[in-house]
Amino acid sequence: MLYVIIAFLWVSLLLYLLMGGADFGAGILELFTSEKNKSSVRKAAYSAMGPIWEANHMWLIIAIVILFVGFPGIYSLVSTYLHIPVVVMLMGIIARGTAFTFRHYDAVKDGMQKVYNKIFVYSSFITPLFLGIIAGSAVSRTIDTGATDFVSAYITSWFNPFAIAVGFFTVSLCGFLAAVFLFGEVKDAEAKQRYIRKARTMNIALVVCVALVFGASLLADVPMLTWLFGNTISIIAVFASLASLTLLWLMISRGDVKLSRFFAGMFITSLLIAGTYTHYPDIILLKNGGHLSLLGQQTPQKTLNALGSALLVGSLFILPALFYLVYSFDKRKQEVH
Hints:
The chain is mainly alpha-helical and about 325 residues long. It has helices at about 1-30, 35-50, 55-70, 70-80, 85-105, 110-140, 150-155, 160-185, 190-220, 225-230, 230-255, 255-275, 300-335, and strands at about 280-285, 290-295.
């Protein structure tokens, strides 16, 4: 049952990165869009996000519940030493969802719309930034459980070049995903070209951020090259991600929406495998050379059995409902057009 729970944890993180990433990316694209085109970006984003924007954070909640119930030691350490970026990320999620709702459903159109817009776009940027910072901090060996002062314990654990570089990589990844998904939501040729240009820009930003991550990893002595090229599985995943990215651009050039989205998903999946396989099952790497492992920090077997059973039974209800939600929105859009 332990491996079933770990699989649910990994898939939840993947789906949050895919669906939530594209969701956040819509706000990031809006942030870097000229005023005359912002309204069209919002319209396309509403169309794309409509079926899933409220369901996106379900995957994050599932991951948090799995850690809280199944791996309390890992949950406790993250919520203690990384509580500042975690709180900022959660506040960003709340602010973004609130702004999205008010700017879309507020019956009174006044100056507050500008406030809602600013909250939405900036929280769309801040939230994935700090999500990436948390991920980078977890594996950069900067968390010092033996720290005796506030700065060492709660600031330098996440405020360091490597974690921040991973944060900006996550932001550019979300923007790229959003551009690819929104490319398929517009019918106008000019609008399609606009999203292709945005995807190209975000792709360039991805390459720059990858260089920043590798540079920061050398400064912080994080063995990124070993993780990515030190074993067969990771090497295959790296080349699969490059192949998926190449095929993604080929499908975009052909105007194939479904396959471009498919290869975008393959690109993210391959990246996640490449970045996590080598140090699995160690999920937290500590400054003193220690680590917290998914195979060493688990809760008692009875609790694992109950958690695993709940996840399996719950998926029988959640997944069909989610598919039907997406189907019903797509059907309604087809009827409107």
